[in-house]
Amino acid sequence: MNYKKMTNKNNIGLLTNYEQIKSRERVNNHGEVLTPEWLVRDMLDLLPRGVSKIQSRYLETSAGEGIFLVEILRRKLDTVFRMYNKASDREFFTIVALCNIYGLELLKDNVEVIKIRLEMIVKDFFINKNNMTTSNIFFDIIKMILDINIINMDSMKFKEPVFDDDKQIMLNSNGGFIYKDELARISEWEFDYGNKKVKRIEYYYEDLVNKQKEEYLLKEQEKESVKKSDNIKLNEDCYIKKAKKYEQVSFLDNLNTNDEIKSNNKIKNIEKSILNPVRIFESVNYLKLLDLK
Predict the structure, then answer these.
(1) Which Gene3D superfamilies match (predicted)?
(2) Mean pLDDT across the stretch 122-141?
(3) Pairing mode of beta strands 179-183, 159-161
(4) How far apart are CA 268 and CA 275, in angstroms?
(5) Confidence check: pLDDT of 11 > 60
(6) Integer Cα distance of 31 and 227 in angstroms
């Protein structure tokens, strides 16, 4: 029995049914915008060549049907199959490519469509284009990674919405979405390329976002500090005139006594925080990833 071809046929049927349930009300309620494939390709062509690097990391916070993620994965797999010929190398680096693609999406049916489309891209490269025989559990591992990296989440609230039996988001008395109590999680994947090992580290997504904000503010603080330093150099003559003859005045003293610079110091001192993982899984060979569910 050709399991892979049957699965692809079933997936195509699911995608066809999905397209038929789109409605104007749904689009209005959730602001879905369907970007055509040709436009996605043109937009990605404007990015640096890093978009095709196997280990480049991409996260889409409102993934929709996954049209961008599909094209990114296709370009990554082009690189994998161009660079490697051995089946085990192609399997491992396909996993590396997929582990570095993330999609966050509010609507549950969209999440399922993204997973199907990404899985179909992988099967297309291995089966249709290259007629390759894979390890028995390879596509089960692909599905597991997709279940972890394609996340049903409101990326603004950092939580997963609650759905009713009809897969509609449940609303509270005020008309707002109802969410699960626990914060949504996201996984980082680390790789031992020489031994084809994979390690998974799980975080709360909100903690990662806050850490990114912190890093941004630290960079802005550093830029502001450089600007102040440049201003001091430009006004160096002014400081020299104020200093006593032959008296050595420290750079910091000048900085601290300059009222204009003090008044422009609007960025607070920010200390780096420690990002604490929720769970850390052991490093295993890529074919044993299913043991870490």
Answers:
(1) Vaccinia Virus protein VP39
(2) 95
(3) antiparallel
(4) 20
(5) no
(6) 41
